[in-house]
Amino acid sequence: MKSRKWRTRPAAFFMGNPHPMAHHGAVAVIGLGRFGGSLATELAAYGVDVIGIDINEEVVAQYSDKLAFVSRTDATDETVLRQLGLEDVSQVVIAIGNDLEASILTASKVLKIGNRHIWAKAVSQAHADILGQLGIDNVIRPENDMGRRTAHLIRGNMSDFMPVSEDFVLARTAPPVRISDSPLASFDVRREYGVSVVAFRRDGEDSWDIADQDVTLYANDEILIAGSPGEVEDFSTLDEDDEEG
Ligand code: ATP
Fold this sequence. Notes:
The protein is α/β, with parallel strands linked by helices. The chain contains nine helices and eleven strands.
């Protein structure tokens, strides 16, 4: 993990430091609710200098020792965004959801000060559409995305399901009996089931490896497969289908 260049200095802004820690590589997270807060903490844990901004003083206090810099600020205030140096950070995440006006105003102010590297959370399709019309390419709808993902986890026999696009996903599952105990090359998985076995992990081991054609999979291994959502789901339930049939 990269060592931190900045210590938490929550008072810097109020002490008149115009650019408390903004620099290329830093990420500003505006709105430290459940989504913004966990995103900011995870980035910080991986060595990213995070500027956390929230209008609520208690929320800011919770993150003062977790992030490189925190500021209690109304993010719709363009002057303050400039003073925090938001035009210089690599990415800005707008994680305000319920207050639509605050979310949209903040987005327009960040665009106005010249930073176009924005990720924004939306709570509805209308909210997502407005953010898109403003010119924000990365609009996230965490509840919807999680809902879709969970639906596939419930339907299939998968321990993880990662959408790459509408019609292409990666999923983690166990190798079906039909493709176990002999080298992968002997099964023609792609043609037979429409999916590719991308990687595998042996029972009890931590590391994953690329699934070359000469690899033999066993029942207690885990595999990562790629394909369309339907084919991936069908492949993950092959053993159940075989038992029923
Ligand atoms: P989550 O689901 O992530 O917990 P939420 O949808 O319940 O979020 P939101 O209303 O989206 O809650 O607010 C997220 C955070 O954004 C809150 O901590 C709130 O204080 C902060 N926030 C709201 N308006 C502003 C603003 N104008 N400037 C800065 N922060 C704000």
